[in-house]
């Protein structure tokens, strides 16, 4: 079986009981019309079971808000249902009960969103056998100006396969990306061991790549300037140092930072849910695997920009074993095939 995203066991969204609870309630939902952006008066900063924290535009208060279900939770569309009524970054209309509490009465239309398959199995949601199952989607963040994909030089080692999956998800959503290679202070050690720098391939393809270090502060000022004033989501593998990077950028203490597991060489989850910081930047939980959601096999190649130059790209080629296909010579072809196999298998 092709591996896909395994969620953080500390995250309530990954609790299978929560999946079943959501499926039970879903049948009573109806189609909800999104608000216009002008009607919103706050931005979702953090999501919890049955409620969320919203940063209000006026005054900056962050009340804990419940959902007015009939006005927020929509019916299944095209066999897809969101795991939660709102996502971090959503623009919402809040009616305040007090400075510390309120009710969300509507969600504005999203400009875009970054998503993955929701943890747990597909749920039939009361449908008869033989009918298509409902697919649950986890929207990681919404209304994003830039996705910063953080991948470390070492501890854990740079993971091209995971980077490619984030790139595909971002491209499918039409969101600009920046590959941020963290822990650049370890680059000399990696070079002395004879290892190559695999992230250089992405620069050659045309992606924006920046090497940074939260320890020696290499390129931190440059990164800060490039993301200032934007709603940016930081995502990547567990242990690559997203929270440490944000601490360096903000010169403030946020979140928890753990060492790499000595037994597995992998990072431990320290951020347990996405959170919108006052800067407008979004910290997300680290992952070990990441599934692709709602990308068709014939669309996948468009998420690999180097495939566009192939002569066979205009003929609807899937870049498998078709005669005359030139994709096999490309450096990321093996990664493309792995992702394509998981998409075709319905595993994301």
Describe this structure in words.
The protein is an alpha/beta fold and 348 residues long. The protein folds into three domains: 12-140, OB fold (Dihydrolipoamide Acetyltransferase, E2P), CATH 2.40.50; 144-283, P-loop containing nucleotide triphosphate hydrolases (Rossmann fold); 297-344, no CATH class. It is 21% helix and 21% strand. It has helices spanning 16-26, 69-72, 160-173, 187-192, 200-205, 220-227, 242-250, 297-300, 333-344; strands at residues 42-48, 51-56, 64-67, 80-82, 91-98, 101-107, 113-117, 135-142, 146-152, 177-182, 209-211, 232-236, 275-276, 281-283. The strands form three sheets. It has a six-stranded mixed β-sheet with strand order 11-10-9-12-14-13, with helices on both faces. A hairpin with a 2-residue loop joins β1 and β2.
């Amino acid at each position: 079986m092709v591996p896909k995203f395994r969620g953080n066991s500390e995250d309530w969204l990954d609790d299978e009981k929560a999946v079943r609870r959501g499926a039970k309630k879903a049948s009573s939902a109806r189609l909800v019309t999104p608000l216009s952006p002008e009607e919103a008066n706050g931005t979702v900063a953090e999501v919890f079971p049955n409620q969320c924290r919203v940063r209000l535009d006026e005054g900056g208060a962050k009340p804990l808000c419940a959902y007015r279900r009939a006005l927020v939770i929509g019916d299944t569309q095209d066999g897809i249902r969101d795991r939660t009524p709102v996502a971090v970054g959503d623009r919402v209309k809040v009616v305040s009960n007090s400075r510390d509490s309120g009710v969300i009465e509507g969600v504005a239309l999203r400009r875009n969103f970054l998503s993955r398959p929701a943890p747990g199995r597909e749920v039939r949601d009361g449908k008869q056998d033989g009918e298509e199952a409902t697919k649950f989607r986890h929207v990681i963040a919404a209304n994003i100006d830039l996705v910063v994909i953080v991948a470390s030089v070492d501890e854990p080692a740079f993971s091209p396969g995971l980077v490619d999956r984030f790139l595909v998800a971002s491209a499918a959503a039409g969101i600009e990306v920046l590959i941020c290679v963290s822990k650049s202070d370890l680059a000399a050690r990696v070079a002395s061991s004879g290892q190559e720098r695999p992230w250089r391939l992405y620069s050659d393809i045309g992606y924006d790549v920046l090497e940074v270090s939260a320890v020696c502060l290499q390129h931190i000022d440059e990164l800060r300037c490039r993301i200032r004033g934007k709603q940016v989501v930081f995502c990547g593998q567990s242990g690559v140092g997203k929270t440490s990077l944000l601490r360096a950028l903000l010169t403030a203490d946020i979140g928890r930072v753990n060492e790499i597991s000595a037994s597995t060489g992998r990072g431990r989850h320290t951020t347990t849910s996405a959170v919108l910081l006052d800067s407008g930047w979004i910290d997300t939980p680290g992952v070990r695997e990441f599934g692709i959601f709602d990308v068709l096999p014939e669309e996948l190649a468009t998420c690999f920009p180097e495939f566009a130059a192939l002569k066979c790209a205009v003929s609807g080629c899937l870049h498998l074993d078709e005669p005359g296909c030139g994709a096999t010579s490309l450096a990321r072809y093996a990664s493309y095939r792995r992702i394509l196999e998981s998409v075709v298998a319905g595993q994301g």
